[in-house]
Each structure stands twice: as structure tokens, then as C-alpha cells.
């Protein structure tokens, strides 16, 4: 079937290794948009961290959509909420306590893109995260916040080996109640149990009355696997993890070598064998 929705991860997929949009990506996305294809950025970032790329790609208005916080919030770019699934205050407190007990840096994002941490010695990953997402960074203990304070997602952050050492315990402690995913080397993320990128893309597709075969997904990491499972056409980046490639239908070029544009042109715009990188995993 014809592709009518393209879900694209941002970091290390839409953006190159310098965190920039390639001109080829901008052109291909705009051509897809002009042909009536919905191009939906599907990211672990909050909206504030995606807005500059939505603007650069010419994605605006109430009939275009964005998925943020790994699927916790689906909204139109004009701000109309399609779905929102937040983590309650009790789990926020439990996560903060776990971080302190195990000496693992921890922060949370609320639904308004603000980052909160109870860590007085703020980890460098949290600082970079706040800068990349153009988000505020507030140091607050749970008792400093309203009793009904909810979060869009929580993040254990730091060096890879530090997160490797606690990942199994985090999953054993929380994955009965929350969605736990190692989104990248420096991020171990937790969201509402009903949240993942695949469920969000599925929910948006249902609103738009689209079938899985009309959806293409592009990504590079473990948090992209749920949308790979839903989409009829799943494309991993050439720079993606082995596990992402293993779960994709196709592997395109890297994020530094026009991989997004090549995928859009070949499998959505159907411009022929412009650059075929078959999945050999």
C-alpha cells in the first residue's frame, strides 16, 4: 500500500552526528509533506526539544502531528492533545528514592518540557539534556512539588557502565508498573506502562484511519523497536544499533550520508532504487 505516514526518530536518525538537519532531509520531508504524507517526529524529547526541527521542516498547523516523550504525548503541532499518559506522583517519588539510594543521577520531565532533578550535584548528561531540549532545569525534591505532580518520563542518566550496572535492577523493580527502555548509552528511561513509540504511532494511525501497511518508521535504537513492530515498513539507520537493524525490514544509509532522504525517496516517494541498503541482519 502507499505510505501515508512517516514516523521519524530525531536523535541519530533525523539529525546527523553533529545534531544538524541535512539539506537532503529537509528537501525529502517537504516533498513528502507536499504529496500529502504525514511526517511525524517521534522522539523521546519534549516538544520544546523538537520545535526547532518541526519549524525547519515546515511542519505546522492542526493537521500535522508530533509524538514526544517516547509516546507519552501525542499532539497536533498547533497544540491540540490527541493523547497524554503521565506517571503518577507515587512512582515519581519511588524513582527519585531509587536514584538516591543507588547513587545514580536521575531527572524527570513534566508535560511542559521542564526538567526537574533532586540531585544537588547535577550530572553533565542532565545539563546537556536541558540545553538540547531548550528546557528549564529546576532542582527540587518531591516534597517541594504539589502532591499531584505527575511526570511524562523519568531518566536515570550517566556514563554507560554506570547504567549497565543498575539496568537489570531498575527493570526488576519497576517494569511491572512502568515502561522501561534503554533509549541510548547514557539514558535509561521510564514512562507510563501504556506508553511506547509503537503504541503512539498506532493510536495516531487509528485517528487518521490508516493501516500499518500505510506507515513507515525510521529509527536507530531500542526505543524505536515498538514502532518498527507496528509499521508495515520499518527502516533502521546505517548508524543504528545491531538490535534496531535486526528488527527492521530495511537498513538505509547513515545519518551522515543522507539515510533519511534515501529511505523517504525509495519507500515513500517510490522514486525507484535510489539507494537500496537491504537488511542483511
Describe, in short, the structure shown:
With about 280 residues, this protein is of the alpha/beta class.
Describe this structure in words.
The protein has 281 residues and is α/β, with parallel strands linked by helices. Helix content is 35%, strand content 21%. The chain has 10 helices and 14 strands. It has helices spanning 10-14, 23-34, 47-56, 89-102, 124-132, 160-174, 197-207, 225-230, 242-246, 259-268; strands at 5-8, 38-42, 65-68, 73-76, 81-84, 106-109, 115-117, 137-139, 153-157, 178-184, 187-192, 215-219, 233-236, 250-251. It has an 8-stranded mixed sheet with strand order 5-4-3-2-1-12-13-14, with helices on both faces. Helix 9 (242-246) links the parallel strand 13 (233-236) and strand 14 (250-251). The longest helix is centred in the middle third of the chain and has 15 residues, at 160-174. The two termini are 25 Å apart. 50% of the residues are buried.
Amino acid at each position: 500500500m502507499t505510505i501515508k505516514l512517516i514516523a521519524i526518530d530525531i536523535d541519530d536518525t533525523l539529525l546527523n552526528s553533529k545534531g544538524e538537519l541535512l539539506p537532503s532531509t529537509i528537501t525529502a520531508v517537504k516533498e513528502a509533506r507536499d504529496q500529502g504524507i504525514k511526517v511525524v517526529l517521534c522522539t523521546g524529547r519534549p516538544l520544546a526539544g523538537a520545535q526547532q526541527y518541526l519549524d525547519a521542516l515546515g511542519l505546522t498547523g492542526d493537521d500535522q502531528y508530533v509524538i514526544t516523550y517516547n509516546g507519552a504525548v501525542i499532539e497536533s503541532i498547533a497544540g491540540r492533545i490527541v493523547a497524554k499518559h503521565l506517571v503518577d506522583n507515587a512512582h515519581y517519588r519511588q524513582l527519585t528514592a531509587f536514584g538516591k539510594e543507588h547513587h545514580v543521577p536521575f531527572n524527570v520531565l513534566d508535560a511542559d518540557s521542564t526538567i526537574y532533578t533532586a540531585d544537588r550535584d547535577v550530572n553533565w548528561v542532565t545539563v546537556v539534556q536541558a540545553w538540547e531540549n531548550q528546557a528549564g532545569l529546576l532542582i527540587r525534591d518531591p516534597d517541594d512539588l504539589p502532591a499531584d505532580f505527575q511526570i511524562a518520563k523519568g531518566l536515570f542518566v550517566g556514563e554507560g557502565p554506570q547504567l549497565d550496572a543498575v539496568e537489570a535492577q531498575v527493570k526488576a523493580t519497576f517494569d511491572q508498573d512502568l515502561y522501561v527502555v534503554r533509549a541510548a548509552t547514557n539514558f535509561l528511561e521510564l514512562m507510563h506502562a501504556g506508553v511506547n513509540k509503537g503504541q503512539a504511532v498506532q493510536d495516531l494511525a487509528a485517528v487518521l484511519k490508516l493501516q500499518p501497511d500505510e506507515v513507515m518508521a525510521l529509527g536507530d535504537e531500542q526505543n524505536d523497536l515498538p514502532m518498527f513492530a507496528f509499521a508495515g515498513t520499518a527502516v533502521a539507520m546505517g548508524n543504528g544499533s545491531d538490535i534496531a537493524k535486526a528488527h527492521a525490514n530495511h537498513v538505509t544509509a547513515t545519518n551522515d550520508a543522507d539515510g533519511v532522504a534515501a529511505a523517504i525517496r525509495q519507500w515513500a516517494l517510490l522514486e525507484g532504487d535510489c539507494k537500496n541498503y537491504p537488511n542483511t541482519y
